[in-house]
Give the backbone structure.
Amino acid sequence: MTERTNRNGALGPFPGGEGPINVYYDQPVAPRPPAEAKPRRRLRVTLIIIGVLVVLTAVTAAAGGLRAQPKGPVQSVAGRTVNQGLFDIQILDARSGRMKLSSFDPVANLLIVRMRVTDLGDKSYGVGSFVEGVTAEPKPGKYAEPDLMDTQGDINGQVTSEIHPRLPVVVQVVWKLGNATAPRTLTVALRLWEYGQSFTTDEFYWSVTKQSPIKAEVKVPVRLGATS
Amino acid sequence: MSAARKAVAAVLTAGLAALTMWLYTVKPHIEDRLQDPLVSKGRIGAAVDTPDFSVKVAKVDVASAISKPSFLGTKGKVMKSLGLFVIVQAQIKSNKKPFTPGHVRLVTRGGVAYDETGRADLPDISSGFQPMLWAPATYIFEIPKDRLAGARIVVGAADLYNNLSGETSIDLGIDGDRAARLAAHPTPDYALKTS
């Protein structure tokens, strides 16, 4: 006995019922042989898959892939080099007191942080652009911007205004304190320089703004009572 | 399906999955440089022209320190570099109207570009150049010792540039051998002529 089935069953039979067209659609279909259950084989495959997953997870864990990612800024201390995206920065020291920067300046209450800066990019940046990415964090979440005009670069004790690729420059970042006193330990916050495309042109460039996320927080002891 | 085919399929699947993850990180970089100026290329010794100005590099010196003359002929300040000073002596003339050069940089291998030194004690030339008159210009750069080979000096216009501005790119003719020689024995104390 053959079981006749119509593939267009849902639409009902074609007009003309047993016409020549339906020869193609009304092919006899052999009944499916009942699937032979192989529980042992299936169990083995499942075990192999689970085993592979366990091994992969173990390897990932051994390679450190499951360790929690550090959240928030990198915490560092003076003397250690931190990466800021475009620059590598090593904070050298900090001093504070009533002093003058050059012989013609009036004496002022200043906080000065020296840092060795290496440009990792492929063009030169002015010291003024670099300072945009540096701020002080007197209290967590509170930032104090340095003084742009007094901040200067220094190579072998001579003033420079440019930071060139792979030529380290010591940048002296200055905060004017007014009547405030400097903390014994200062937290310098370094903002993240990001590489991206300009909104209006096809140019790609590194940029940092006052809203950029903080990449690193560096604790540096301040030498109080400095006079030069 | 045989075990071998299964293994091949598994490896292929893992490969395709990895490829998908890599593709996800690929972002289109539309860098067709529509806004870059038109570059005229040339070599040291020859005049390189753009419609607005012409540049001719006469001489290149490499020094480890520069000294600046001071008043009354006394020995002035000596500036030492952590790398090398590259002193490029050029002649510039305008072709149309008074011209001020700008965006001057030393482009080294791999496209790494160095602006002028920025040393406070070295003079910046800011003078303009007049039509039909060649006038001297000295540019001083500071680069690491290993970036000398194949350096080119690029001179553009000071005003905001667009895709029709001209720029000259001049090969300083420093090949690998010469670069090694110059880097090993730079002029120990280059005396700057102008104060």
